[in-house]
Amino acid sequence: MPQFTDLLFFAFAGMALLFGFLTVANPVSRNPVTSAMFLVLTIISLAGLYLLLHAFFLAAVQVLVYAGAVMVLFLFVIMLLDIKEEERRRLKTFTVGVGSVAVAALLGILTVSALSAKPGSPAGQTRLAIGDTAELGKVLFNHWLLPFEILSVLLLVAMVGVILLSKKDLK
Amino acid sequence: MSTKVVDRSPLTFYERTYLPAILGGLKVTAKHFADTVFKGKSVTMQYPEERWVVPEGYRGAPYLVKDQEGATKCVSCQLCEFVCPPKAIRITPPGAEGQPADRHNAEKMPKEFEINMLRCIFCGMCQEVCPEEAIFLQKDYSLTGESRSEMVFNKEKLLKLGGTHAGIQKWKHKLEEAETQETFPVQTR
Amino acid sequence: MNVGLQHYLIVSGLLFSLGLLGVVVRRNLLVIFMGLELMLNAANLSLVAFSRYNANLDGQVMVFFIITVAAAEVAVGLALIVALYRKRQTAHVEDLTTLKL
Amino acid sequence: MESLQYLSPTTQFVLFSALKILVVFGVVMTGVAYAVLVERKVSAWIQDRVGPNRTSPFFVDYIPVIGPFLVRLGIFQPMADGLKFMLKEDFTPSYVRKIYFWLAPAITVVPALMTVAVIPFGSTLGSEKMVIADLNVGILYTFGIVSLGVYGIVLAGYASNSKYPFLGGIRSSAQMISYEIAMGLSVVPIFLLTESLNLGDIVKYQADHGWMILKQPVAFVIFLIAAFAETNRLPFDLPESETELVGGYHTEYSSMKFALFFLGEYANMIASSAMMVTLFCGGWTLPGTLLSTPSSSLLVGLLHIGVFLSKMAVFMIVFIWVRWMLPRFRYDQLMDIGWRRFIPVALANILLTAVVVAL
């Protein structure tokens, strides 16, 4: 049923965009917690899009890592620092104007390049692209083994760095 | 010196696995579980059916008592009203043309006698102070009601709940105390 | 019209612009950081879409890497923000003017 | 069944899925209600009390011998509890952040209920697989959804705008992130052995090769303890520790909103029990009997579900019993156990299993 998945695409995409908009430019609230919660919703909508793209493993990892860990960390820090709502007067019209123009220009470039993209074939018949986790693992641990190992070192470095940074009496 | 040195040696490896604590907890809980389920050794009292045996000297709700002839003992002296710490008692004296006492050896009795059981702290001072021994803290411990006004007990209710204390007569036990003290083998002068 | 690669790319582009808008407009360090996360996610979406429509799993591997790096990045970034907050009692970019003349 | 064959496969799929969802939802809800009853009863028995033994609706009088017995067991207590929660005053303090205050209980419950979707609670009934969603990344889905459960508690703490709930929320976020890692690492050896992330495959593997609890006792212990931490049960109930935080994140809640937190906690317990049964105790299989292979007969299918539910009940009892066995851990002890004991042990376990598998 292509019709049904198309509907799902529009639902998820619309949700992702709406929640993404509410994350960065919520007209009602400037509360960082609100932003964080809408970002969580955006991430979950994106996971839905990944499902439509048959990337089941990534969808699960997206929810697990982004929504489950990264955003909880964000909330944790917001609460730890007791960050108040942004004051409204500080929003300068100049910044907003220039920013919007720049963003609109970028969006234009992105749209043009996206429209000129080759449509590609909605694969699915080939085993490679049906989102099989085992296949992903094989690719990851054969072709991309060295980057994977480097990544693990990066995580270790980040961990040590964070511990050092969060020490209070850092000399 | 009577200083007791508590053993605070560091935990051994076995103890640090929390296994002894877990096993100990399991033993205690299993024993109590088995005792309750299989031997019926529960310590709970099934309240409305089983009632608590109220000990002597228990301070329950204060009620008015009648004397052996069924007459009101209270003479409306208002001492209890004055002494009551939470001001739970309110006595309306009979006034000049009020009703006379319903017993022969008293001048008057209260027109109205109210105890607000929601304010009462069951301290027993009213009983202590009463010269006529007309008010007693009794063994009633389950005072309930559905409204605030219901919990203000009036004279009729208090007298009804208090009942007749035939054995308690004015100054009688004081008299007995005095007699025992007179026979006390202490020679005075 | 069936949903194809272009649809995903446009959604991705819109999300990326939204993230950038957040980075440019908002003044709270944490919200700016969230905008960055949004941009990373937009990039992820286009990578997954490419992977799907080119029948090639490399895109998904790349997304996997990006998610991992993002987790590390968030940890370090939040630690920096906490350290900054400890020193300055603010998480507002306009109050951080040490380099200003 | 005959008339169903005229429907298109899609309609059948939707129909059966909806039916399964409804039934599982009903079972989980009933399970939650009766888990609360079992909790109260077992707690009472361990503490030399009798527990709820009075609730008796009018029709009990017409049941001869069994009626009074059921009343003494408190079988009707959950109904009274539910009614009580609904009739209580739904009080919202004036200083709370209202939207989050109202959202938080719902956010707690939804992930707890969603976790159950991927768990194979039986083999087959007729031709239907007894699992709502047979995902090939089932376990990752579960972990993802479980990790969302923390938001309810964190938001409840934040929205209450009062210090004890706030501390509870902060504690909970740190605790859940820490123990999720240990939990995730503890199940990796299982995937190394079964070579699949699909929970159905894991059950099948255990039917053929014996239960995981025997092969991976270390993983089981870590998973069990992490499950206690994830469901905020004693000895790890630091987010709501009554004595220090007066109830923690749900201090300001009352009525149905409080009931939803309660429901979430017990639904989480049910989901964790189901996960443990599926991952470590062979799911719906029962070795040594005919029950270890999927069967098309209706009776065997029902028996499989029965086996699954009884195994789950055992774990629920464990959850409830442990509550009275151990005192609450201190916060630093909790973090110490999570980061410095379980994660290294789980990593070593992975390494060992990998070596064994490679050989």
Structure overview:
The complex is a heterotetramer of chains A (171), B (189), C (101) and D (359). Chain A has two domains: 87 residues, NADH-ubiquinone/plastoquinone oxidoreductase chain 6, subunit NuoJ (Four Helix Bundle (Hemerythrin (Met), subunit A)); 40 residues. Chain A has six helices and no strands. The radius of gyration of chain A is 20 Å and the shape is globular. With 171 residues, chain A is mostly helical. With 189 residues, chain B is an alpha+beta fold. The longest helix of chain B has 21 residues. The radius of gyration of chain B is 27 Å and the shape is elongated. The relative contact order of chain B is 0.16. Chain C has 101 residues and is mainly α. Chain D is globular, with a radius of gyration of 21 Å. The longest helix of chain D has 38 residues. By secondary structure, chain D is mainly alpha-helical. Chain D has a two-stranded antiparallel sheet with strand order 1-2. Chains in contact: A-C, A-D, B-D. The interface between A and C is large, with 89 and 73 residues.
Count, helices of chain C: 3
Order of helices and strands of chain A: HHHHHH
Give the overall average pLDDT of chain C: 83
Order of helices and strands of chain C: HHH
User: For the largest interface in this structure, which chains are involved and how many residues does each contribute?
Assistant: A-C, 89 and 73 residues
CATH overall fold name of the largest domain in chain A: Four Helix Bundle (Hemerythrin (Met), subunit A)
What can be said about the biggest beta sheet of chain C? none
Q: What class do helices, strands and sheet pairing of chain A give?
A: mainly alpha
Tally of domains of chain A: 2
Biggest pleated sheet of chain A: none
Secondary-structure class of chain C: mainly alpha
**Secondary structure: helix percent of chain A:** over 70%
Please name the CATH architecture of the largest domain in chain A: Up-down Bundle
Residues in helix, % of chain C: over 70%
Instruction: Kindly report how far apart the N and C termini of chain C lie.
Output: 57 Å
Q: Which regions of chain C contain 5 or more consecutive residues with pLDDT less than 50?
A: none
CATH architecture of chain C: Orthogonal Bundle
Overall shape of chain C: it is elongated
Task: Give the amount of beta strand of chain A, in percent.
Answer: under 5%
Number of domains of chain C: 1
Distance between the first and last residues' Cα of chain A? 63 Å
